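Before relying on records like the one below, remember that each one covers exactly one chain. Contacts with other chains, cofactors or solvent are not represented anywhere in the record.
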Amino acid sequence: MGYLIQSVNFLILIDKYPRKESNNSRVGNYNLFKFECQPKEMSLSLTKAAEFLERTARPLELRAYETIFKGASFDGFADALEKFRCSDGGFGNALEPDVRTPYSQPLFVDFALKSLYQVGARVSEFGVGVCDYLRLVSESNGALPYLLPNALEYPRAKQWQTLHPPSLDLTFGLTAILHWLGVENPWLDRTTESCWLALDAPPDDAHSLIGVMQFLEHAPQRSERESILAQILELLPRARWLSLELPVNGYALTPLHLAPNPNALAYSCFGDAMIEAHLDELVTQQQEDGGWPLSWEPPGEMARSEWRGKWTLDALVVLNAYGRL
């Protein structure tokens, strides 16, 4: 299997996530999924990807790329993210490109905190105002809607045409990253307790399970954590919106979303061959213009361009974590 890797003059963080020793005897029934991919030539151009981001990405994703791969100061990324901050402590201004509202939304806070987490920016100041905002828009147990009614006044993608009732689906991931940031807040304490109680009946949606896995990694640990983790790992193969088989047709999450690096808790669910097959597929998805494509329809060309910048950054981060750059 050949790889054409074009050299670029920026820092590649190959050793950030050292590979685990091979072990194909994984949890549950994953061994039923055999990935015997036919050898094929794959070409990954880092030069094209970098040029694509420089040409089309928002300042936020471009600064994130420069921080992660070029060793740039966090300040540039922080300044870019701060431009999406609203006076109520939340984040707005279409931070999540599929919803074009300027108003703060819980979905946008989720996007902001995940961006901080991806860059590795452990700055608790970003989380303080966030807790104040989330307290205002959450239920007493910390349950959050993805969007508030004022989001419906603006263009948005098909999946956001209606409001979803408050749930802990967003709260798991938000709580996890707030703990990772080192935030201390009464709202966070109450919400953390609610999340632990809710794991008696964990969600079955792959999007939500990403947050659950982050919660189990970063929330203050409890004695029941290991038994809950084992239950979640057994649940993952059947999660809604998760595609194990290749090729992935249409919109779906893959094992790489749940295990974006080999040290992720969910990595133990997936055989090495499955992870490698999905990495191969990710490489082949790079487009001629250097970016990665979308598998859903955004609400306009500006949103498409913004999302492709984010999607391309995400692809590079995952490939880098697995030593493919």
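The chain has two domains: 1-58+242-325, 84-241.
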